[in-house]
Amino acid sequence: PLHYHQSFNHRRLIFPNSIDRPPAMPSGYDDDRLRELKAFDDTKAGVKGLVDAGVTAVPRIFHHPPDPTPVASAADAADADAIPVIDLARADADRDRVVAQVRSAAESVGFFQVVNHGVPARLTDGMLAAVRRFNERPAAAKAAFYTRDAARRRVRFNSNFDLFESPAANWRDTLFCQAAPDPPAPEELPADVRGVLPEYAGAARRLASSVLELLSSALGLETGRLGGMGCADGVSVVSNYYPPCPEPEATVGTARHSDPAFLTVLLQDGMGGLQALLGGRWVDVPPVAGALVVNVGDLLELVSNGRMRSVEHRVVANRSRDAARVSVAAFCNVDLGRESSRSGRLYGPIAELTAGGDPPRYRSTTVAEFLAHYDGKGLDGRPALHHFRLPAAASLD
Q1: What is the CATH number of the domain that holds 97?
Q2: CA gap 48, 136 in Å, rounded
Q3: What is the pTM of this model?
Q4: Where's the Fe2OG dioxygenase domain (predicted)?
């Protein structure tokens, strides 16, 4: 579900923009389309504003070409069970078994759901309700938070972080918060989320740290190896609101992409719509009561030398007539703040994972460089990791 630099500025975090006005348009843009994009953005009302205005057709800036990729059948038992559910209550008493489950999931499908994860229901339920309340306020009440200025605003509301970069817009609105390591002051947050977002972000970060310990063990490394690399020092909480869509076949909620992070912890409501690309088909990641979704990010695939899979995923447009879908992603990354000693650090395949005849598949990069590449291309359907693959790696697949 998903996105980083300051001067860049080294504080750009998952899924924001660092611009107030559109940059130079990609080839293929026409003046009419640019005017439509700017007119939509200038409303500061997002997709919810279109729905409130009573649109009965999807505007052309949201049109996506048909996706020829087949969709797995929900009736197929194998597809229904494709995303493993892992019980973390057994992580201490039966650690080897849980590590094996995490290894299998991360190496084969890149996604798994966790139950008994330690994040209380009052926080998960409260977070979903708060995001829904904020997005369902009148447009004027949300306009004060609407911006594309990532350099000066740690809390931002807008629609489509890549509105002026991607070939087509997505049918969703987003509230972004840079939550760690330096959380915003309470008054920087919308009142609707102020009482729950900081606590939820802390709980999601602790869960991510625990999962990173399991993943370290799964890679045959010391338990604290990934955490010690700073993989969850920075956390961005990205809350997406997917309004009902009058023509769901014409657009998508979120276009296919993989996450430019080390790890993502996703909270989704019961509506469904998230799909992962597995075996050449779109497979549902179904809502499971009490579960949180965990998926491997691009940077974890990179440092694991391809052992852990960062899988492309998407969100289909909301087919409900009267209810919005809500999800909250906690993207875990390094601390890109000016004070961070890691902001200019090179990340490449971990040395122990390139021994024994398995040469590096990716070149080393700074996280800032990776995110600049990701932001610059937008959600254009091309995996960002391909840009960092070493030429010899193709022969290893």
Answers
A1: 2.60.120.330
A2: 8
A3: 0.90
A4: 231-334
